[in-house]
From TrEMBL:
Xref: InterPro entries: DUF3306
Listed Low complexity bias regions: 25-46, 151-176
Stretches the record annotates as Disordered: 19-88, 141-188
Biased composition (Basic and acidic residues): 77-86, 141-150
Name the record gives this protein: DUF3306 domain-containing protein
Length: 188
């Protein structure tokens, strides 16, 4: 039994030392990873400082957009990293240059419609006639239908009067309707 205990303890001791060695190796790997991350952060900061310095130097080198002559280059203002307000000023200066500030004369909104000439009575009458021509045609058609209906009624009454010997009276007179009177005044 002594042998089995010493074997058990020795195996336990070996396992314990193995676990401690693994923990130490893991800690060493973590420390190395942290150091590597610190180096990468330091390198990234150095690069960002360099790019910021380059951008600041580039922005200081940019000329005043208003001072660029006609046909000059605005390409430096359109690069990445340029201050948006400087870029906006440059584009405003570019589009205000004379070669881009020409109207073609075909813009309908450029005309002045506020001072229109007044129509004469004859011109106004002609415009009204053209606008309401469909309405006049409709009224004329209704008038013709009414006349045809009245004529048909008169013929019917006359035919009934021939069949009836007691009705030797004259057919009733057809009076012009309001639409007929209006149609007569429009034609004159």
């Amino acid at each position: 039994m002594a042998n089995s205990k010493s074997g058990l303890f020795s195996r336990w001791q070996q396992r314990l030392t193995k676990v401690k060695e693994e923990e130490q190796a893991q800690q060493i790997a973590e420390q190395e990873a942290q150091e590597q991350q610190k180096q990468q952060l330091a390198q990234a900061e150095a690069e960002s400082v360099e790019t910021e310095d380059a951008e600041a130097q580039q922005q200081q080198e940019l000329p005043d957009p208003e001072s660029i002559e006609e046909g000059g280059s605005f390409a430096d203002f359109l690069k990445e990293g340029v201050d948006p307000t400087k870029k906006k000023q440059a584009l405003r200066a570019l589009w205000s240059q004379p070669q881009y500030n020409i109207t073609d004369g075909m813009a309908e909104y450029a005309l002045d419609y506020s001072n229109q000439p007044k129509l004469t009575a004859q011109a106004a009458k002609e415009v009204a006639k053209q606008v309401f021509r469909h309405l006049d045609a409709k009224l004329e058609e209704e008038r013709k239908q009414q006349e045809a209906e009245q004529l048909r009624l008169a013929q019917q009454q006359q035919a009934e009067g021939q069949n009836d010997p007691a009705a030797d009276a004259e057919p009733p007179a057809i009076e012009p309707s309001d639409s007929e009177e209006q149609g007569d005044t429009r034609q004159s």
